[in-house]
Every structure is written in C-alpha cells, then in structure tokens.
Amino acid sequence: MEPRREEKDRVIEMIGKARSQGRKFLMEDESKEVLEAYGISTTRELFAVNEDEAVKSAEKIGFPVVLKVYSPEIVHKSDVGGVFIGLKTVGEVTEAYRKIMENVSMKRPEAKVLGILVQEMVPKGYEVIVGAIRDAQFGPVLMFGLGGVFVEVLKDVSFKLAPLSKKEALEMIKETKGFKVLEGYRGEEPADLDALAEVIIKVGKITADLHEVVEIDINPLIVHAKGLIAVDARIVLS
C-alpha cells in the first residue's frame, strides 16, 4: 500500500520534529502512526496527562485496557514497571496509574514523564515479531519470528533482504520452526498468513521509502485467524 500524500508528508514532518528534538527514535504512538500510514493496523489508544484523564480514556476505549508510561527517555517501558495490562475497572486503572508513576520515579527518577498511553487490550492470538534493520552494505534487511520463548530462547527468526514479493514473504514465514504453530497447532485455527506476509512487505516498503529509518520493531504483532494488529512498535532513526 502506498500512503496518501498528506499521510507521507505528516510522517516526514514527524520524523523531522523528532530529530530536531535530538531524539533518535519515534515514540510508540508516532511509530504506530507510521505503520497506519502504510496500511498496518494498530491498537486504539489515547494520551492522558493525569489520573482522571486516564480513567476517562479507559471508559472511552472500553475495558479491558493497558496503561503504558509515556516518556521520550524510556524506551523499554516494562523494565521500569511502566506497563500494566488487562485492567478491567476504573479502580484498577487508577491503581495502575499510581503504580506506574511510583515505579518510574523510583527506577528512573531523572526521566521526564509526559503522561500515560491508555490502550485497548487485544484478544489473544499468535504473537509474532516483524522488524527491519538498515544494513550499511545490503540495505533494508527484514526479520520475522514468533514471539515469547521462540525468539528469546530458541532464536527462531528468519531474515531476507527487502523488497519482497508475496511469495518470498510467505517463504520467510515458513522458514521458521514456529511455522507449525501458525498452521494451527492442536486444533487451533491457523493464523492469517496472507495478512502477515503483507505486513512484512509493508515494513520493507517503509524502510525503502524513509531513509532516516534505520530500524523497525513491531513486537508484538498479534495475528488472528482473520486479520492482525500491531500492539507495540518502535522506530529508530539515523
């Protein structure tokens, strides 16, 4: 999918703003805006600057929700206790908001916290990782793997140079040992491989179009029997 001109201009402007602020990465919501411009579905989320706004945002999105700390100085939010998932009530959202602020002030007291992202909780599905890195010699290199222990313990990932055809993207998926899981293990519905292949192709397109982008990481990308959605995303800039 080719982004509309106004979407492409917005993405370029956003990257320019990040670099002018001395940032070498896009914030999560900014990274997702890039993905959306290229036709990759992402979670609904709202930005909140205080407890009351977090509650109102959760009610607007609909429970259950996820709360994440929003700071340009914190890349790995889970490491500082900055993420709470599966929040089902106003009370749980209030408590999670307070805990996030406490955790961050203890573990990263110097970090500037701008607020909280309140995000929809996505139904369970197949958890995968799709990414890209700009190699100095070969250009954009795409990466695919299953999430969880598959990528962390088994290092079960495949790599290919961008751009890819649909056939090559599907081959990339099938190269992993975890492909058997995606086919529908023990009676589970198989994952939407066509939609997954399209995301891999689109990530290649983003890195080809936007030369300031040196790394993309969609982790996790939740794939269902029909369709998929990017839950978290990170884009690193040159």
Q: What does the model show?
A:
The protein folds into two domains: 76 residues, 2-Layer Sandwich (Dna Ligase, domain 1), CATH 3.30.1490; 112 residues, ATP-grasp fold, B domain (D-amino Acid Aminotransferase, Chain A, domain 1), CATH 3.30.470. The strands form two sheets. Strands 1, 6, 7, 8, 9, 10 and 11 form a seven-stranded antiparallel sheet that branches. It starts with a helix and ends with a strand. By secondary structure, the chain is an alpha+beta fold. It is built from eight helices and eleven strands.
Provide a compact summary of the structure.
By secondary structure, the protein is an alpha+beta fold. It is 37% helix and 27% strand.
| CA-based gyration radius | 18 Å
The percentage of residues in β strands lies in: 25-35%
Low-confidence stretches: none
Which fold name fills CATH's third level, the topology of the largest domain? D-amino Acid Aminotransferase, Chain A, domain 1
How many separate helices? 8
> According to CATH, what is the class of the largest domain?
Alpha Beta
> CATH homologous superfamily of the largest domain, by name?
ATP-grasp fold, B domain
For the record, the count of structural domains works out to: 2
User: What is the first-to-last residue Cα distance?
Assistant: 24 Å
Shape: globular
Output the keywords.
four-stranded antiparallel beta sheet, 2 domains, Dna Ligase, domain 1, alpha+beta, seven-stranded antiparallel beta sheet, single chain, D-amino Acid Aminotransferase, Chain A, domain 1, 238 residues, 8 helices
